[in-house]
Amino acid sequence: MAELNGEPAWHCMVPDEVAVARLATRFAAAAEPPLVGYLRGDLGAGKTTFARAYVHALGYVGYVKSPSYGLLETYETATQKVLHLDLYRIEDPEELEFLALRDLFDDRTVLLVEWPDRGTGHLPAADFVLEFGETAGERHIDCRGMTDRGLGLARAVVESLE
Ligand code: ADP
Ligand code: MG
Fold first, then answer.
1. Atom of ligand 1 nearest to the CA of 50
2. Domain spans of the chain?
3. Which of 38, 47, 92, 154 to pair with 71, CA 20 to 30 A apart?
């Protein structure tokens, strides 16, 4: 694995939505809950596209909407319970307390959080962080493992791409 800012990391070029979905599918297959993933990046960078493909890869049939207004959407699948959180419209991180994430989070849960920096102090720590960015007009996703479990997942995904 290459290094990014001194931490083990890798990045993947994602020229289109299909490439994002392919990567999300690898994550869904390799993820062993419980896990927390932060999805960072500007508006329109592809965070919801990733979460949607992740949920569909687990066999969820139905519309996966952007949770911007309700903050949280929950998806029960055969192997994982995906909590998709989007803090774009949160006014105060304290609002997170009303969602009682602690009670919803169990050993089958994968929590994916868009705009995690807006929930600082009220979110569980990340096992992995995905940064959705663009360099010279080319879109890419950078992945960092933050815990042993997150690093294991990051490694499994990168190996599955090779
Ligand atoms: P975010 O949740 O980060 O605000 P979205 O996932 O809603 O962004 O994506 C915004 C738009 O960009 C969507 O129309 C989506 O199809 C498109 N998109 C997402 N990722 C890519 C990509 N890698 N290349 C091209 N278009 C993309
Ligand atoms: Mg979004």
1. 6
2. 9-161
3. 154
Does the beta carbon of 134 lie inside 6 Å of ligand 1?
no
Q: How far is CA 49 from the centre of its chain?
A: 10
What is the reported pTM?
Answer: 0.95
Tokens of 40: 């960072």
Q: For residue 76, count CB atoms less than 10 angstroms from its CB and return exposed for 0-12, middle for 13-18, buried for 19 or more.
A: exposed
Ligand 1 within 6 A of CB of 137: no
pLDDT tens digit sequence for 47-90? 999 999 999 999 999 999 988 777 999 999 999 999 999 999 99
CATH topology of domain 9-161: Rossmann fold (3.40.50)
CA distance 7 to 141: 15
